[in-house]
Amino acid sequence: MLRSTKSVIAVLAVCLATPLASAQSVSILAEQDSSIYEDATGSVANGIGEFGFTGRNNGGSLRRFFIKFDVASAVPAGATITGVTLEVNVVQLPPNYTSDTYDLHRASTPWGEGPSDGFGQGAPAQAGDATWIHTFYPGTFWAAPGGDFTLAISASADMNSLSRHSFSSNGLIGDVQDFLDNPMANNGWLIKSRVETDRTARGFAAREFSLIPMRPTLIVDYTASPAFLTFCDPANNSTGSPAVLSANFGSGVGSDLHLDVSGGPPPQPSGMGMLGYFLIGNANDAPGIPISDGQFCLVGLGGRFSRYNVAGTDRNSVGQFDSLGNLQNTVGTGGPSGFGFDVPSDVEISGFPLTTIMAGDTYHFQFWYRDSVSGVGRSNFSNGLSVTF
Question: Where are the domains of the chain?
Fold first, then answer.
C-alpha cells in the first residue's frame, strides 16, 4: 500500500494517540471586592479593608458587599462550566443577630475597589472607591443609590454562624459561563441581605484578609472544549482529489477522538476503493513537504511522526473510499458507523517512548491515501488537523 512513497515516510513510527481528562476544577481568589455604606453623600467607603460587610447593623446602618472574580484568566476559553461554588467566611455577627438569607445578584455596572481602608463604620472615600452613590468616587455614579444589580437572584445561602458558607446553584453556573464567554459582562456580584432589617449585618473575611484560606473563593468545575484547527488546506495542497479530514470527540473509545475523511477519490472501474491510513505528529508546518501529489505537513521544529497501520492492533486505521468519497474503515477500528478511525489512547511517536496524551496536549493528524485521479502509483494527503485535548 502506497509503496511508491512509502520510503519517504519510513521515519514515521508506528503507534499512537490520546486519552482525555477534560473535566477539571479551579479555585479562584477574588480579583476585587468592596463594601458600600448607606450614605446620601457617598463619603464613606471600604475598598481594601480586611473585612467586608453586608446587612444592617444594630444601629440601623445598612451595608452591601460587592465581589468579583477573574474567571476568563483562570478557565480556558470555550470551556463548559459544569459547577460553581462561591465560598465566604463569616467572621463577625452582631449581638443578638437576626437570622436571614443572603442573596447573590449580578452587578450590572463596573465598580471600583479604591484605597480606602475602613472597618465597621467605613473610612473616608478616596478616588476609585465604590460608595453608596458612586461606582468610582468621586465622579461616576450608580444609576440608583445602593448599587446597580439584577433583580434575579443567582444563588442564596443562610449565613447565621461564624463559619464558611457556600453559594451554589444553576444560576451561578449560568453567570460564570457568561463571565467566561463575555468577559466584559463580568461585573461580579452583590451579596445582599434579603430583608435588610436590624441585626442582619455580616462581616466577611475580604480578599485582603491576612489568612489566605479564609478569603472568598470561587470554585469552578468545567469541561475544557477541545480545539480543532485546520492547516494545509487540501484545496491548495493537492493536485488530485483533495480529501478533507475532520474530527469530533465522543467516540467512547481510547482517546475519545474520532477522525473522518470525506471528498476522497472514487473507486476504480473494478470497484476497488482507494486505500489510505492516518498519520500523527508532534509538529506541523505549512505548506509542508511536497510528496507525490500532495503536501506532507506533519513537519517542523523537532517534528516526529507515526502512522496508524499496525496490523492486528487498535493502531491500525486502514480504510478505503466508497463511491461517495467517504473513508470506510476496513480493519474494525472505525466505531459503530464503520467510517473513519477511533484514535486509541497511547501514542509512541518515533524517537519518543510510549506515552499517554493529557488534557492540554496538542497533536497533529493527516490522512495519506492512494489517489487514482492523480494517476497510477500516485498518492495524496488530506488537510492537517491540530487537536488540543
Answer: 3-22+226-388, 23-223
